[in-house]
Each structure stands twice: as structure tokens, then as C-alpha cells.
Amino acid sequence: MTSPLGAPDASKAPRYAGLSTFARLPRIEDVPTTDIAIVGVPFDSGVSYRPGARFGPEHVRASSRLLRPYNPAQDFAGWDAVQVADAGDIAANPYDLAEAVDQIYEGIHELRARTKRVITVGGDHTIAYPSLKEVSERHGPVAVLHFDAHLDTWDTYFGQPLTHGTPFRRASEDGFIDKTASMHVGIRGPLYGKEDLEDDNRLGFAIVTSEYIEEEGVAAAIDRVRERIGDKPLYISVDIDILDPAHAPGTGTPEAGGLTSRELLRMLRALTDLNIVGADVVEVAPAYDHAQITGVAAAHVVYELMTAMAQGLVRDNEV
Ligand SMILES: N=C(N)NCCCC(=O)O
Ligand SMILES: [Zn+2]
Ligand SMILES: [Zn+2]
């Protein structure tokens, strides 16, 4: 295999110059093969409050220009070990949720046919449903590790079954999720009723609350994640609003009392030996961001997920 093509040498081309791709990595059409594709899904027709996540992908790309090849926290240089490329954006009908979900599924399915892993950058949390549909067709029902302030296992909004508050209920009902090994991390804030928690449990999720992490610490939360998920094929979904609004103001449904970006990144880095088969990072809404605070946090989340996936591909001799 020829050496992977990485980002331009920042000592020759300034970081702030050049096309806006994730971490200034090559576009998928500019490399012969791709192992990990990072694809944008500029879609926010599923939101229930502040819109704007349709501009999330471009904001995360713009906020990722400082990322460098070697990740000391994982002692691994992901894009030097495998080919990582920016696959551009999947176009989805902003006026028809059902059609949009089909288009997102088709876009991921087509990408996955020519790459080994896909990381989707939203866009609102609706996109987790088609992504989980695609991943579960390849790996069977997957363990879902869902970082979020919100359960996102609600039923319908104004009669609509697929929105950013319902992806994991629909995915559980449709058999995409391993109900013995899925969990939410970061849950906090007001609910519609206690039955939300009863439904959530029935749909197959354990819960690590934001308050638990404050009381017991990140290490205890990591232990609970590892115990629940084990070595099952794992899908990681990161709603950036898991972070406290101080660390992610640029999002549509902010809830007080969240995690710091340091805590979230530490959790992600502790999971690099798990079998990560898919991931998304969603709900970045740049209209409410300041100085790329949220964009930079999301870019680092993608970077840690990419690094962990690259390690897994090398470890499992898939490259
Ligand atoms: N941001 C996500 N993914 N979900 C928020 C749902 C908020 C609500 O139903 O009130
Ligand atoms: Zn959320
Ligand atoms: Zn969410």
C-alpha cells in the first residue's frame, strides 16, 4: 500500500490557506482508496428548537485547521497509518424528512461500499437513524454509545416519527440496536415525564447522567461504559450538546450542567480498544457559536474518533 496522503505541510502552506476539508485532509476524489471517510450531512429539518445545524459540517471543517498528524493522547498518528479523506457532503431534501433519511442512508451506503469506516458530521441528530440502519445491515444490531444531554428516544413530534428527538427509539424498534449493550452518557435537564425514562429503559438503554460524572468521576463512567458494551460492534453518536453550554454554545437545544470538553475527550480516548464500526458528531449550529468554541470541540471529537477507528483497522489487520 502506498503511504496515505495526509494534510499539507503547515511549514510550507499556512494552515489558514487552502480548500476547507476536515483537518485539511485530501478530498476522497483525490486519493486512490480511502479507509476512513469523513462526510458532512448538512441537514436540520428535524430540529425542535433553534435551527442552523445545516451549517455544522462547514463549521467543523473550518474549525479543524489546527489538527496535527500525531495524537499524543492515543500515541497514534491516524491519518499517517490509514487513508483518511473528506467525502464532502450528502445532499438531503430539507422539505421532506422521510426522503431525506433515505438519501442520507443511500449516501452512507454508497460511501461505505468503497471505504472501511464512515464518520458523519451533522446536521441534526435525525441523521443517526439512517447511519445506524446502514451500520446494522453490515454488523447486525450494534451497541450504541450515545453522548448527549437528551435521551432522543422520544416518540413523535407533531406526528413526525423521525426527528432529532426520536432517532434511537426508531432504531431500537427497527432492530438496529443491541438492547443489552446500549447506553446514554451525559443525560441531564428537564423531561416530559417520568415515563420518558421508563420508555428509554424498555428501548434498551442504560443511563450515565451528567450528575453521576460530577459525583463519581470520568474514570467511573468509563468503567460503566466498558462493562456495558464489552467487545460488541460499537456505534458512537456524539451530540455536541452533551457539553456544557460554556463549552458548546453553538448548538440548538442547550441544557445547563454539562461536561467539559476535557471530560468528553478523555472518555473517547479511553475507548480506543473497542470495536468502533461507525460514528457521528451532530448538532453543531454555528449561528450560536463564538470564536469557534463549539466547532473546535466538535473537530477534536471527530479527531479522537478517527484516531480510535484507525487504530482498530490497523489492530484488526483491515488495512
Ligand atoms: N438535540 C437533540 N438531539 N434532541 C433534543 C430534543 C429536545 C426536546 O425534545 O425538547
Ligand atoms: Zn442533545
Ligand atoms: Zn441529540
TrEMBL record:
Keywords: Hydrolase, Metal-binding. GO terms for molecular function: agmatinase activity. It comes from the Bacteria. Its EC number is 3.5.3.11. InterPro entries: Agmatinase-rel, Ureohydrolase, Ureohydrolase_dom_sf, Ureohydrolase_Mn_BS. Gene3D superfamilies: Ureohydrolase domain (3.40.800.10). PANTHER family: ARGINASE/AGMATINASE, GUANIDINO ACID HYDROLASE, MITOCHONDRIAL. Belongs to the arginase family. Agmatinase subfamily. NCBIfam families: agmatinase, PRK02190.1. This is Agmatinase. It comes from Enteractinococcus fodinae.
